[in-house]
Amino acid sequence: MRSSLLLLLLLASCRHYAAAPPDGFAAFELKSGDDFRAVSPDGVVFRVRDEPNKPEADLPFWKEALKKRMIEAGYTFFAESDIKAQSGEPGYLLELSAPLGPRDYSYLVAIFAKGSHIVIGEAAGEVVRVKERHDAIVTALQKTTLR
Q: Facing residues of 104 across strands?
């Protein structure tokens, strides 16, 4: 038990952020331990991860690059807004949708740029389910602390 807790703390300390699950979601760990993950009982998934900021750029660059990439990939633009992490860094939230088989899915992605890393928060699920959990997801993204 002690070794499991120590390993979890060491893995969490490698992250360039601290995150918590949205209300109504349960956090879980995968073997890699690199990403923070949570899921709701109705199948909405939530993840926070960090990536190298390469090319090293500021938030306006990543806002434009993210939106362009997602629209070119076939997602339908729904909304965008500025958000702020709990630690004070400005961020960008992009809300998209896409069909998957007979169902439509929503995809929310937030990005924060800090130094040599970018922190990305994502949520995805059926449109109706994500809509019901939208406020809890955005609140969890805003509670992210960048290190």
A: 99
47-63 residues labelled b (16+ CB within 10 A) or e (exposed): bbbbeebeeeeebeebb
- For 110-141, how does the pLDDT look when each residue is reduced to its tens digit (9 = 90+)? 999 999 999 999 999 999 999 999 999 999 99
Question: In angstroms, rounded to a whole number, what is the distance separating the alpha carbons of residues 109 and 144?
Answer: 13
Q: What is the pLDDT of residue 33?
A: 65
Residue predicted with more confidence, 114 or 44: 44
Token code pair at residue 147: 């290190």
Helix, strand or coil, per DSSP, at residue 97: strand
**Contact between 125 and 44 (Cβ < 8 Å):** yes
Buried-exposed string 9-30: b where 16+ CB fall within 10 A, e elsewhere: eeeeeebbbbbbbbeebeeeee
CB-CB neighbours of 3 under 10 Å = 7
Residue 110, CB-side half-sphere exposure with 13 Å CA sphere:
25
Q: What's the CA gap between 99 and 105, in Å, rounded? A: 6
Size of the chain, expressed as the number of residues it contains: 147
Domains detected in the chain? 2-146 (3.40.1000.10)
